[in-house]
Structure formats: structure tokens, C-alpha cells
Design a protein that fits this description.
219 residues, single chain
């Protein structure tokens, strides 16, 4: 009986925690000095609930960042289930840009804390690179990017993201940069001859149709 009563409480507590993290990501990215009391109010939780989950600003920022990193990592596998590998990669790159802007904003939020910016880099390093590897391997297997692209190649290619100002109109610049990176990855791809004239959702079938007709004309 006690366990049945505890289950809804645990569920409510989890929802409160996730709501706090969701609001905190937006507020702290927009303003490093966002008051914790304002975050609690926008999340719809009381001060007691808020501080039971996050006793101070440092604890909140680090958990927001860990949560964001996990979302980025999980998105890679999710996209590969529903998209062609190259489209999954390009859409994930947009998600990575959002992560990059959040990272910059959260680093600002920690500027007066004992935690350094390097801490955020270390926290996100493994998960993001694992997602990159997953996407690159899927694309190389499908022949949709040039062979031999490594994690380091990719991270160097998108390094310009980290130079964008999260408080400015960064989306158009990020989109242009990532389109250029994707064009470079596709250059020399084994499948590029079959797909270059078609959009992401049209790959494969039209090119296959043409190749099936060629032998008939030659005969």
C-alpha cells in the first residue's frame, strides 16, 4: 500500500524536476543572472521544492547542462530511426547548434562560480562525441558522406559554431555554416552520383529508376 502511495509522489517530483530544468535552460541561456526565485516561479514550484532539488545556482546550472547533453546524445539515435542517415546528420547538427548556444549561456551563468568553463567541456565531451561517431558511421555505411571522416574532422569543421553569440541572431549564421559543412561531407560520397539532383526526402528511387532503364536502351 505504501509503495502505491509513493509512486504518484515520485512521478510528481520527477515532473517538477524536469520542469525546473526546462525553464532554467531558457532563463539562464537568456540571462546568466536570472534569479533562482524567478525560475522557480516560472516552473510553477515552491521555493522549498526548488531548493530540495537544487540547493544553489551551481548545482542547477551543472544539472541543466548534463540534461541538455543527454538530450543531444539521445537525439542522434532517435533521428536515425526515422530519417535517412544524411538527413539525420543534418538535423542533428541543428540540434548541436542549439546545444552550443545553451553551453555558451550556461558558461556565462557560472562565471562567478567555483566551477570553471572547462568543467562544462568535460561534462559534454564524451556524450557528444559518441553521437558524432554514431551518425558518421551510419552515413559512411550508407555511402552518403565521403569515406574516412573522423570525429576530430567533424568537430573541427563545425568549430565556428562556438564563435557565435548566443544573444545575437545566431540561427541564420549557424544554418549557413552547417549547410556548408554538410556539402563538404557529401562531396566525394560514393552515393553522391545517385542523389545529387534530389532533395533529402527523394533519394534513391529516381536514380534507381534511371539505372534500370539503361540496359534496355543499349540492348
Amino acid at each position: 500500500m505504501d509503495s502505491e502511495k509513493d509512486a504518484p509522489l515520485r512521478s510528481d517530483a520527477q515532473r517538477n524536476r524536469e520542469r525546473i530544468l526546462e525553464v532554467a535552460l531558457v532563463e539562464l541561456t537568456n540571462s546568466a543572472d536570472a534569479p533562482l526565485s524567478a525560475i522557480a516561479k516560472k516552473a510553477g514550484v515552491g521555493q522549498g521544492t526548488f531548493y530540495r532539488n537544487f540547493p544553489n545556482r551551481e548545482a542547477l546550472v551543472l544539472e541543466v547542462y548534463r540534461h541538455e547533453v543527454q538530450q543531444v546524445a539521445d537525439t542522434a539515435a532517435q533521428l536515425l530511426k526515422t530519417r535517412t542517415p544524411d538527413r539525420a546528420l543534418r538535423e542533428w547538427m541543428d540540434r548541436l547548434a542549439q546545444y552550443g548556444m545553451a553551453k555558451a549561456g550556461l558558461a556565462d551563468a557560472l562565471r562567478s562560480s567555483t566551477v570553471t568553463r572547462g568543467t562544462l567541456t568535460r561534462l559534454g565531451h564524451g556524450s557528444v562525441r559518441s553521437a558524432v561517431t554514431l551518425l558518421l558511421e551510419a552515413n559512411e555505411e550508407a555511402g552518403t558522406i565521403r569515406p574516412g571522416v573522423t570525429q576530430d574532422d567533424f568537430m573541427l569543421a563545425i568549430a565556428g559554431l562556438w564563435q557565435l553569440d548566443p544573444h545575437a541572431d545566431w540561427q541564420p549564421r549557424a544554418t549557413r555554416l552547417l549547410d556548408l559543412v554538410m556539402d563538404g561531407l557529401r562531396a566525394g560520397a560514393p552515393a553522391s552520383g545517385e542523389t545529387e539532383a534530389y532533395g533529402p526526402g527523394e533519394r534513391g528511387a529516381p536514380a534507381s529508376g534511371r539505372s534500370q532503364k539503361s540496359p534496355a536502351r543499349e540492348g
